[in-house]
Amino acid sequence: MKILSWTAALLAVAVCGTACTSGAEATEVRGRVLDVPAAEAGPLIAGDLRFGLRMLDAWCARDPKANVVFSPSSLAGGLGMAALGAEGETAAEMAGLLGWPKDPLGGLKARSDALRGLPGVRTSDQVWADEGWKAGQGYLDRVATAYGAGVKLLPLETDPEGSRKAVNDAISDDTEGMIKDLIPAGALDGVGWVLTDAIHLKADWAQEFEPEKTATGAFGTAAGGRTDVKFMNGTGDFGYARHGGWTGVRLPYTGGRLGMLALLPDGDGRECPKLAAETVEAFGSGASGTRLELSLPKVDLSTGEEVGPLLQSLGMATAFSERADFTGISPNAGSVSAVRHAAKLRMDEKGTEAAAATSVEIEVKSAAPEELPRVAFDRPYLLLLQDLSTGEPLFLARVADPSRG
């Protein structure tokens, strides 16, 4: 059984559910949770914010007229699991983009614990690997420590479509059905590892909007036109501040642990936002309770894309190239073939529901063609027939011209 080739320190259990009924059956292998020094989640969370704002800039620059919705947390989680197995230049680029400190394990563990402690939020991190490819013990321990992730073994190489269905079904389950078919047909051919992060949020406003006050109003679009949309209208005490050319209103959700910061730029807002992390952080400390009238559009947004080109434009190019080094995952791990992300966000008078998922797909490293010695008997040669046990020469010949008898 191939699982026995993994070290004895690992625990193997059968994993069933939707992934077993509609796709290939997965078996889970888990590493040890390491005893790492306690660390604050703050630096990692600040890194997620800066990474998210850079992604937003790149995404918007591609089409300033389009809606964009994504989860910096989910993207950072999926990429982070890959970064834990990266080496050399690959690791340096990924750590730089994600804003990681030199030793991120303690901070990543604190970040994961903080996410899992949020009310109304469900997160899932998972490494999926082909049954035939080993992952290093050190990598298994790091992803277990940082993300609470195990490794689910699937027949990615021999049954990529069944494996794809298993991964997609797991993501659908983890996002309450909001993210379906993240990975398209044929995408896992030649892939040996898929790293997935999923997040689902459902929260009610601490102060709900009254549906009877919802009314149609005009919205000036980024394309320069105007369109009629449904505005939720309410009067209440909200966190409010102005900073750096932005007006911020913070809307809390029930329980007080979650909140939404709505940011309105000065001017017409038609340009891509170029929002600085310091501005967002200033609203966190400076927004005060102010009684105001608020009109906020109801939204139902969705995005689904392969974001590899955006990541490369932000400086993470090596991971997608022949120079990629993910040998910390496995000697057989090649380059990243795709990073897929999908997100949905619905906001109405009652509250917000949102979900996102990320998959990072890593190819199996192609072996270089074996250099075989070539010997051509194209000139006179000898033949020696022997008794191999004694070396006795039974026949000896010299072939001077094979065309003659």
Automatic annotation (TrEMBL):
Keyword Signal recorded: yes
Highest taxon above the source species: Bacteria
Domain spans labelled Serpin: 53-402
Pfam family, one: Serpin
Keywords: Signal
Signal sequence region: 1-26
Family: Belongs to the serpin family.
Listed PANTHER family: GH10112P-RELATED (PTHR11461:SF211), SERINE PROTEASE INHIBITOR, SERPIN (PTHR11461)
Protein name: Serpin family protein
